[in-house]
Design goal:
Length: 108
Amino acid sequence: MESRPIEITPKARDEIQRLAAIRGASHFRIAVTRGGCAGWEYQIDFAAAQPDDIEWQEGEIRIAVDRASVTRLQGAILDYQGGLTGAGFRFRNPHARGTCGCGTSFEA
């Protein structure tokens, strides 16, 4: 079994499972793609794993990480922040040298 390239916090896991139950999803996929004003952006979605993805089980859901994104995600942490404003998933990524002003993309 390969090591998990990203840590999912308990809060993030619980929110992923809550949303997956609403959507009837079994997979949560994470990737990094070119885009955003800082050069790279995170892509998260309830989508089936691709053939080359790294997969593991987190509670009731399968996590899939795009293998091409591993070098930009290795050692990152996915967390969830609740609240009335600014709620959402947050990445803490040791490879991010900076982020854009809106916080949706990063420089690596």
